[in-house]
């Protein structure tokens, strides 16, 4: 890009910003629900002035040069922010690409009588804008990955509560797929809790586990063995019909492990293992006292 | 040489491991313990490993060996107080110690031993009764 076009673009800065903003506001894909117009205007103005400054720098063609550093920072900030706000990849990259149209209009006016120069300038402008757009995409994806990573961490933290359902009985409702990393977290949480509460029975409820394959079963068996080594017995409950079918079809041996269909029956079994008897309380008082409940 | 003390409590032997077991110490313990079982005709062996924080496959095997040997000599072995990290390590090593009874602490271990021995006694009495 030569000095002339840089100067021409600089001279028309106000006009460019106006047309660019106009185009963006006209666009059906404008997300005014995610971002206010004034915010967009401010962002666009900042980007445009840094860009025009870079165009007039010595190495305007090279987007890796020092002149483009502020632009990189601005674009990084914009795309990470947009990734967090929930903009789609298309919306994010078209933000930078939409500037292309306006810039070529200005260049067209300036070099109307010199087609060769116009061609050269447009190509070089395209190259710069494309490379900036790629940069935007790259940071956008990076931003999204950060969001995904954070959510994964949060999920594995919140989804492994160990509940004390009775004196000496723990319950561990497992929700979601069990992979090696999660099994580790679940196992550690359970064993720590067994030590802390001195519980003799732990119920692993897998009604929230969508599928059980041989790997998941192996993880479950490992957890049960570890708890057994510490002196606690495990009961696996919440085994649905489909899961029972897959387990048998896969030839997984669960004969050494207590299994129950529901948490209720597992609890009943734990009571009998701990010699606890639960009985309905006898109705006290005169028979007429029932009327007090308003029946 | 360092030795781990073996205490006799009625019909049971109580071993509390307070140091990290190295191979030689573990072998000595195995030897001493089996000799003690034979000498005292103990009915139960309780091994407290709550202070042990590191195990390897050798340690796991020694525990399994002690249990099997005691069983041959008619004594039940209970391992109590295993740390979570130790349990996870043993499982990852593929050692589930299937012949060993486990309990959370010494108290529960004693209770378990008592019920086990009680069962044995009544079984034997029943056997004796049926002979007459």
UniProtKB/TrEMBL annotation, chain A:
UniProt xrefs under CDD domains: STAS_RsbR_RsbS_like
Keyword set, alphabetical order: Phosphoprotein
UniProt xrefs under Pfam families: RsbRD_N, STAS
Origin: domain of life: Bacteria
SUPFAM superfamilies in UniProt: SpoIIaa-like
Residue ranges of every copy of the STAS domain listed in the record: 159-270
InterPro entries cross-referenced by the UniProt entry: Bact_StressResp_Reg (IPR051932), RsbRD_N_dom (IPR025751), STAS_dom (IPR002645), STAS_dom_sf (IPR036513)
PANTHER family membership: RSBT ANTAGONIST PROTEIN RSBS-RELATED, RSBT CO-ANTAGONIST PROTEIN RSBRC
Name by which UniProt lists this protein: STAS domain-containing protein
Biological source species: Rufibacter glacialis
Taxon lineage: Bacteria, Pseudomonadati, Bacteroidota, Cytophagia, Cytophagales
TrEMBL record, chain B:
SUPFAM superfamilies, A to Z: SpoIIaa-like
CDD domains, sorted: STAS_RsbR_RsbS_like
Record protein name field: STAS domain-containing protein
InterPro entries recorded: Bact_StressResp_Reg, STAS_dom, STAS_dom_sf
Naturally occurring in which organism (per UniProt): Rufibacter glacialis
Coiled-coil residue spans: none
Superkingdom of the source species: Bacteria
Domain STAS per the UniProt entry, residue ranges: 2-113
